[in-house]
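Q: How would the structure tokens look for this protein?
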Amino acid sequence: MKKLFLLTVIVVTAQFAFGTDAPVASTSAMTSFNKDFYNASSAQWQHSEAYDKVDFFLDTQFLNAYYAPDGDLLAVTRNIVSEQLPLKLLMELKKNYSGYWISDLFEVVNGTDDDYYVTLENADEQIILKAKASKSWKLYKKVVKI
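A: Here is the predicted structure in token form.
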């Protein structure tokens, strides 16, 4: 009897201590996601006041989708390799940034145009460039390494 009582106390205490009363995501975002990506697997949600983010797999591709609280799809991102860049952007990187290596590269699709962000590094600095699919790279951020 004491063991059953103790077990009940532990379970109730754990629910209060570790339970999540905060929503994982808005119902509208989850409904939209299930319609937009009905073949998705391994969905993991993160909620904030501004948006809901879901990390998931679509076939073998890892993607991130961002939804407004009302369920509108804001953007979808995916990590890519340099060969997946539009040819113009790839050639510009090779020509103008040959002394750097790529430490991060991802594509953002937001319904109007594809944006690309690349983080380039060398021993002295880290730079982040942004480009529209049909445009050239523009400096987004520069950090000098110490």
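The domain at 80-146 is CATH 3.10.450.360 (Nuclear Transport Factor 2; Chain: A,).

Residues 1-20 have pLDDT under 50 and may be disordered.

Upvote if useful.
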